[in-house]
Sequence to fold (163 residues):
Amino acid sequence: MLLKKVLMSSLLVSMMTIVSVASADVTFVKTTDGSTFKLDAALFDTPAAKEFLATGKNSYVGNAEAEAKGKKLFGLYSCTQCHGGDAKGQVGPGLVGPTFRYPKDATNKGMFETLWHGTNCGMGGKGLGVMDATDPTNGLKVDELLKVIAWVRTQGKGLTGNE
Fold:
């Protein structure tokens, strides 16, 4: 009987630990001023976006179809004008590393934060509702931004951002 209670207690503690780890979402920090920001959970509407919210990992890295879509979005949102067609820099800095203007951009979470809210060096935020304050439907969705980041990672030398 005592063994059964110990086992049940251990199982309960293990389950509570798993639940608290699973619900521990990523905390996002603006590149501009270091303040935290929250995104509506409804914006994380795909399996890849949900995984990113939970872990900070971009599951589109290494997915050729998603990377191709990211390349297209990189062009559509005029990222090429500053960062060049290969994301290695033009008027703006290169995005592929190994060194970054913002060191946190070596991670997918850091690059997401920089792209979502922008920088102090001239790049406006590209996130949905941030890109154009007068139009909450303008800008990249979370899933789209993850695809852009996945494509940017293809231009570097082995850095996936998920390390």
